[in-house]
Amino acid sequence: MNGSGIFEGGGVVATTDFDMRGLTIGLEHSEVDDLTNFGSTATKDKLVTTFGTLGLVGAWVPYVAAALALHIAWEVAAIRASDKGNGVWLNAPYPILIGMPGVLLPSTRTMVALFDGTKDSGQMTSEHSDVIKWNIDRNVEAAGLLHLTLKDECSWDKAIKVKVADKSTWVQANGNASANDDANAQDLTVVSAVFQKPQFLGAWGPAGLAISDWTGVTGGDHVTFTWVSDS
To answer: How many Cα neighbours within 13 Å face the side chain of 167?
Structure first.
């Protein structure tokens, strides 16, 4: 299976992130009932459509969607219980996607505090209640180059999935360490950064914080993100 991406907006599945580490689906509060109230066939069809928005196609897609739909049917109570008013994350480790036994892992989404590139420093909060600080050094890099650094002050590994146009790369920092990445930022409208961390049973998934609006940031800036607290 190949492909990665984020689908944001209306419809049943608000946010989806997929790669070889697994699949994570973010549901808004209103979408939890929408997905869990349908039978497995309808749910499967909705997931197939969502995979298509990510460019994930092939004979394997209906089988993966059917397996995931069955897990959703089995775990309706747990999924609904995890929704505290802001929706849920559904984390599907890779083995589930190929039909092996496993558990679809629901977790609560919380309100977020977002990145503001017009400010030289600040603090964000993810939907998993992580705290991440940022600091921007202006015009210290080569023109047109956005330099991103991730520092991890927590014990567990963290990462940023950086997407520039249709190319995705991982910037992973081990516990109490740092990592760097350069993104060609001549057009910041095609750059996104999705904060990721290991979750239940070590399955990687989004922490519920992404940056696609870089207003205030220009090519030549160096942005340092420091993950200071893990929920």
So the answer is: 6
